Amino acid sequence: MVDQSPCCAPVLRAPLTERQSVELARVFKAIADPVRLRLLSLIASHAGGEACVCDLTGAFDLTGPTISHHLKVLREAGVIDGERRGTWIYYRVLPDTLRTLSDVLVTPETAVTG
Amino acid sequence: MVDQSPCCAPVLRAPLTERQSVELARVFKAIADPVRLRLLSLIASHAGGEACVCDLTGAFDLTGPTISHHLKVLREAGVIDGERRGTWIYYRVLPDTLRTLSDVLVTPETAVTG
DNA sequence: ACTCTGTCTAGACACCTGTCAAGATAGAGG
DNA sequence: CCTCTATCTTGACAGGTGTCTAGACAGAGT
């Protein structure tokens, strides 16, 4: 979902183009929310690497539609993917997208001197 | 600026607490903007690892106050730091904060099977 | 076919955010 | 002390975001 170019141009090594920054910001925005970060961690750490909505709603004082909204934001950003199997819809994390974000934030400084 | 606990509890390995997710989201929100991502990359890739505001405003079709606002958001999130030397204020990236974010997005899956 | 359960969509509203114009503050240099 | 430049702060406004209620859709079981 994220353009390939940002992965080879870490934020802290070379100036981002405007286009790259827009694309990266779109994905960062998707995960920059407490509910969505927790959803992400709940899905990823759930047995089998996937979770249905019914496993998730109980962890929040939020209505079903609100959880559904947040899942949609994550889905449209390419951070998770959902699949219907029978009655339930199972979500799983798409690790490539997250790794792109992670890589972009790694700097020469942090990589070398820590 | 980011609590230490998230660094030892990657998002994708164990469920985040509500407190951790709020703290992480605060920092992710700060960088989840095209202008701020470009500011970050401009500052980090500038000679000496620092840049004054006058080096930055030229890259955007935005007024000075708007750039100043974005720099403040980054500063309050602990992503950059500013220091006045004479007439100019120089900003530099605080790499520890970014590394925390980067680490949090690294998963067992991406780390191993990548 | 009807109903029940699980999930999503649509519409509405309060709050947050990005932007600008106008004015304030800090240091340099006369 | 006054002025000039660089930057920040304040106040205002348009647009975006998170949340809810009400209703729609899909599949399972009777």
Defining key terms:
homodimer, alpha+beta, 3-stranded antiparallel sheet, 13% strand, disordered C terminus, DNA-binding
Provide the fold topology.
The structure is a homodimer of 114-residue chains.
Chain A: H1 18-31, H2 34-45, E1 50-52, H3 53-57, H4 64-76, E2 80-85, E3 88-93, H5 95-104, H6 108-112
Antiparallel strand pairs in A: 1-3, 2-3
Helix pairs in contact in A: 2-4
Chain A binds a DNA duplex (30 and 30 nucleotides) through residues 33, 35, 52-54, 62-73, 84, 86-89.
Protein architecture, described:
Two copies of one chain form a homodimer. Chain A is α+β, with helices and mostly antiparallel strands and 114 residues long. Helices cover 52% and strands 13% of the residues of chain A. Chain A has six helices and three strands. The first copy, chain A, has helices at 18-31, 34-45, 53-57, 64-76, 95-104, 108-112; strands at residues 50-52, 80-85, 88-93. Chain A has a three-stranded antiparallel β-sheet with strand order 1-3-2. The radius of gyration of chain A is 16 Å and the shape is elongated. The two termini of chain A are 29 Å apart. The model of chain A is unreliable at 1-8 and 110-114 (pLDDT under 50). Chain A binds chain B through residues 11-16, 18, 21-22, 24-25, 28-29, 31-38, 40-42, 44-45, 49, 59, 93, 95-96, 98-99, 101-103, 105-107, 109-110, 114, and chain B through 11-16, 18, 21-22, 24-25, 28-29, 31-38, 40-42, 44-45, 49, 59, 93, 95-96, 98-99, 101-103, 105-107, 109-110, 114. The first copy, chain A, binds a DNA duplex (30 and 30 nucleotides) through residues 33, 35, 52-54, 62-73, 84, 86-89.
